[in-house]
Amino acid sequence: MEQAVDDGQSPYHGRNLAFYDFMVFRGSAPLFWRASPRDFLTMYNTCLGAKHLEIGVGTGYLLDRARFPVSNPEITLADLNPATLDFAAQRLAHYKTAKVVANCLEPLPVPEGSHDSASLSFLLHCVPGSLREKGVAIKHAATAVRSGGTVFGHTILSSGVPVSGAGRWLMKNLNQKGVFHNDEDDLADLRDQLKQNFDEFDLVTRGSVALFRGRKP
Question: Which residues belong to any copy of the Methyltransferase type domain (predicted)?
């Protein structure tokens, strides 16, 4: 399992990060997963709090474009990969940021209830196991958020949603390479995980992508 977790984050290094935004937000998202990046950004704009925890930081693309509810937000970047942490922190240097090395499958190294919002953006489909197993990442995110705070995110599913022929081909290829681990990821399992952690939640799909948010009781 530990090796699979490392494999899932291994492509996010150095030169690859420079092309990540173009490949994902102008390439695979609209062309293969049939989802618009505008919907991802809208979720950020409507869910971000003044003190935000980003779990699985990617390049910081969406955070950099999002509208925070305050002019001076505090952002904690949490990721297993030091390269992505450094890349995102540099991109978001105009904000107050902190970096922590963390595995989303384990309790997060931040105090309980310390953040207003937390996101799992395009993370779960890169984490090994079924959603019944890796759904614990949602629990850990909720633990880090205060009562009334919001946990939100996006993930690419392989069943319970429409997957185009091109999308199925790319998904199979990425799973074989160990970049994705979503060949068991089902919409119903994601809904069950949200039910276990939130009294109130929203779950919608755009193409093969699920967008979710839950309010901490």
Answer: 53-150
